């Protein structure tokens, strides 16, 4: 579960003259001849090696016929936070407060799942990965996943609590 931009997003970034060499090499290995065309200039956003790795992972899983879904860590934190305040990564409170608030949610979720030992979460990227794994595991256990599919936008998985899923069913099915 991870958010993945469409291929043209990568191709626009990889074919600019300002693209970093290591990203261009990763892109060349992944996209090959597709980089020999012009795709126009990138339209904002960030571009990192982690995004390329995420895209490659998504494509590899799809190639072996695995069910692949996108998901958003910030949304998952908000869905599983309970009464905990989740501080913004870019907010006034700072990245330390953001990491601490996320770690508290992860600790509570790990306890609920009876995870004996959660590895240290020292970075926001690690917290994002952990919320996707833990909330996904909890939702699968509770049978409270929701999949939203759209032919042009992809497949998204929401890992919900039982209470959240019941609320949605009451709203949609009434």
Written overview of the protein:
This protein is mostly helical. The chain folds into two domains: 7-63, no CATH class; 84-172, no CATH class. Helix content is 52%, strand content 7%. It has seven helices and two strands. It has helices spanning 7-14, 21-31, 49-63, 73-80, 95-112, 124-142, 162-172, and strands at 145-150, 154-159. Helix 4 packs across helix 6 (124-142) and helix 5 packs parallel to helix 6 (124-142). The chain is globular.
Unreliable spans are none
Number of strands: 2
Portion of residues in helices? 40-55%
Structural class: mainly alpha
Largest sheet: 2 strands, antiparallel
Set out the fold topology.
Elements: H1 7-14, H2 21-31, H3 49-63, H4 73-80, H5 95-112, H6 124-142, E1 145-150, E2 154-159, H7 162-172
Helix pairs in contact: 4-6, 5-6
Summarize the structure in short.
This protein is mostly helical and 174 residues long. The protein has helices at 7-14, 21-31, 49-63, 73-80, 95-112, 124-142, 162-172; strands spanning 145-150, 154-159.
